[in-house]
Amino acid sequence: MTIVEFSDEIKVRVTPKRMFKALVTDSHNILPKIIPHIFKSIDILEGEGGVTGCVRQINFPDGAPYSHMKDKLEAVDTENLVVKIVLFEGPGLGEKMEKFHSEQKFVDSGDGGCIIKLKNHHHLKAGHTSISEEEFKAAKEHGLTFFTATEAYLVAHPDVCA
């Protein structure tokens, strides 16, 4: 199996704790409310939402490219604001990818916002050895849309995830 690594940083105007809460510990309640055009619902299949070991089914709205995906929160560190997630099932993995690991660290940027440091590992199925620039670009743009939509909502609603 080939593993393709990708790292990135995204700067947002929201504190690390608020972004972490919206994207990790209370995501199953918050994300479908604040960005329903991206998330229809997030169902907890095993464990408790936002804690290590939690398995979720993420359902996308009608018209989205995929109906759902399943992930597992492998590690949730609420003190250091770090989460490790594995996407292990769903049509979003496509024909190339067996699973997708992501580590997200939320770091204070010193100006009231935060930097989300991403480390992604794409575990490719047998017979596949790379991911094209176009595929990386599309994945990055989707992730950026997700983070900026969350940021915009939290900036407009300072009481949410406070």
Which percent range describes the beta-strand content?
A: 35-45%
Biggest β-sheet strands, sense, barrel: 7 strands, antiparallel
Straight-line N-to-C gap: 42 Å
Number of strands: 7
Radius of gyration over all CA atoms, rounded: 15 Å
Strand order across the largest sheet: 1-7-6-5-4-3-2
The domain count comes to: 1
The helical percent reads: 25-40%
SSE string = EHHEEEEEEH
- What is the CATH architecture descriptor? 2-Layer Sandwich
The CATH homologous superfamily corresponds to: START domain
By CATH, the topology is Alpha-D-Glucose-1,6-Bisphosphate, Chain A, domain 4
Please tell me what the overall shape is: globular
| Average pLDDT number | 93
Overview of the structural elements:
- The chain has 162 residues and is an alpha+beta fold.
- The chain has one domain (3-156): Alpha-D-Glucose-1,6-Bisphosphate, Chain A, domain 4 (2-Layer Sandwich), CATH 3.30.530.
- 26% of the residues lie in helices and 38% in strands.
- It has 3 helices and 7 strands, in the order βααββββββα.
- It has a 7-stranded antiparallel beta sheet with strand order 1-7-6-5-4-3-2.
- Helix 1 packs across helix 2 (27-34).
- 23% of the residues are buried.
- The mean pLDDT is 93.
